[in-house]
Amino acid sequence: MCEANAYLVKEGKEELILEDLSILRPEKDELYLQNIFGEQKRIKARIKEMNLIDHRILLEEG
Amino acid sequence: MCEANAYLVKEGKEELILEDLSILRPEKDELYLQNIFGEQKRIKARIKEMNLIDHRILLEEG
Is the full-model pTM beyond 0.90? Predict the structure, then answer.
C-alpha cells in the first residue's frame, strides 16, 4: 500500500484528516483530498511537507 | 516502493523532474524535492496534483 495519511498540524499537534490518501489537489485556497475508499474532503490548508517513505503528508492552515 | 515521480507540466507536456521522490516541501516560492537516493532539487513551481496510486506528482510553474 503506497498511500499516505494526511495530518493537519495545529499548535504543534497533528490531527489526522484522512487516511490512505490517493489524490491531493490544490484548489484555490483549499486542498481537495481523496482516499482509496473514495472518501473526499476539502480543507482550507496548504502543504507543509510530504514524506512518502513515512507515508505522511503534513498540512497547515493556510 | 512507494515513491512517486515528479513531473513539471509545461505547455501540456510532462517533463520528468525527479524520480523516486521521498520528500517534497514548499519553501517560499519554490519546492524542495528529495529522492530516495539523496538527490535534491529546488524548482520554482507549485503542486498541481498528486496521485499516489499512479505514483505521479504533477507540478506547474508558479
Answer: yes
